Inverse folding.
């Protein structure tokens, strides 16, 4: 399982907004500059975050983006599943996967299933507040 650039950037945007919650609506160009990310790429990620209620956006003068909830209410897991899908390590564990013909005899299915469970549990126990408040090295 690889976390996509889209997932990593979405986390960075939400962490940045969490670190600046008292600043009101923040122009995305400010986030892009602070995070050294492409504004064009962020403009493709933001609509997904807005549509799914993670971020609020306001157009025009004084506009920008802010978190819809407190940083403690966001988990890394929910953000990564929103941007990257269900984080399945193998195709047969994806949400819409057809039942594999080898399911009953697969020697690795239980390993992948446990890895998937552990991964989701791990990411679901890290909040944006945890990351925003951590000291980077």
């Amino acid at each position: 399982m690889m976390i996509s650039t889209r997932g990593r950037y979405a986390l960075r945007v939400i962490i940045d907004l969490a670190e600046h919650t008292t600043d009101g609506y923040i122009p995305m160009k400010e986030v892009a500059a602070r995070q050294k990310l492409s504004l064009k790429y962020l403009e493709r990620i933001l609509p997904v975050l807005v549509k799914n209620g993670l971020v609020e956006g306001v157009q025009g003068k004084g506009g920008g983006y802010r978190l819809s909830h407190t940083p403690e209410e966001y988990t890394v897991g929910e953000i990564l599943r929103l941007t990257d899908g269900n984080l399945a390590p193998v195709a047969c564990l994806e949400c819409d996967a057809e039942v594999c013909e080898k399911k009953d005899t697969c020697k690795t299915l239980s390993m992948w299933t446990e890895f998937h469970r552990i991964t989701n549990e791990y990411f679901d126990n890290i909040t944006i507040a945890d990351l925003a408040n951590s000291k980077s090295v």
Summary: The mean pLDDT is 91. The two ends are 25 Å apart (CA to CA). The beta strands are 55-58, 64-67. Residues 92 and 98 are 7 Å apart (CA to CA).
